[in-house]
Amino acid sequence: MNDLETRQLRYFVAVAEELHFGRAAERLSMAQPPLSRAIRDLERQLGVQLLERSTRQVTLTAAGAVFLRDARTALDAVAAADRRARHAGRPDPRLRLALKADHDAGLLPKIIETYEVEDGALPVELLLGGRHEQPRQLRDGRADVALLPTPFDERGLDFEPLLTEPRLVALAANDPLAAQTGLRLADLAGRSLPDGAPADQGYSTGPTTRAATHGPVSDLTQIFKLVELGSIVCFLPTSVTERYRRPGIVYLPVSDLEPATLTVAWPQDSHSPAVAAFIRAAIEVAASAYAVRETPSPVAT
User: What is the domain extent for residue 216?
Assistant: First the structure.
């Protein structure tokens, strides 16, 4: 078998994600016939069928599902090599730190202060993004280290838990449940999280998606407004709820809701002294702070 080209991987990933040759061709800014030929050539080269085609739909075979996973990993690795080489060659190297705003348990200022006096420290460049974006940024070379809550996609990453704290549910003050002193997940049946997932499952399904009653939301200000209007509920670590006391929102403990664990994560193949220095600083600051927060009393704000 001849060596595969990144072009072939990109073509296949586009078709596998769209499951439609026309949409994939549009996404790749090319015509559909050469894309179809390229996929057939790839299947012949591999000696396996990757896609089931009919006049009505395109689906992945078992081999195609495996190849899609590995093709994404390979493309991420190529992109990461390019970005990391360019970053290493900058005249002003920096440590690129990925995180979601406010999801640092209040530790970030002290972590940076501690990090800056470490041997090997570099100026910190913050990369703020939505929930679930940070692991991809680490894998594809856009970030060197990240602060993020569990659970997350751990593929290709090393990580160290820093601290654990309870999560509370944010409800509209006029929600019938707001009069309670505590809840269970089952009490939240019929309510939705910001990504449209059922709240009684206790977790989001992944990156923000379009829900039935509102468009995509990931910004915390937008989420709070939808909570106040009763459109959604939201699970937040206590460190966030303490910083955002808002009119029209009540925070309540949920006895069977998994707590939030803040972690520091980095690529498995990282040998950067700056990354190692940041990890040491994060662990030191977390150890001197609190390991688990006390759940505060419900507060109507």
Answer: 167-253
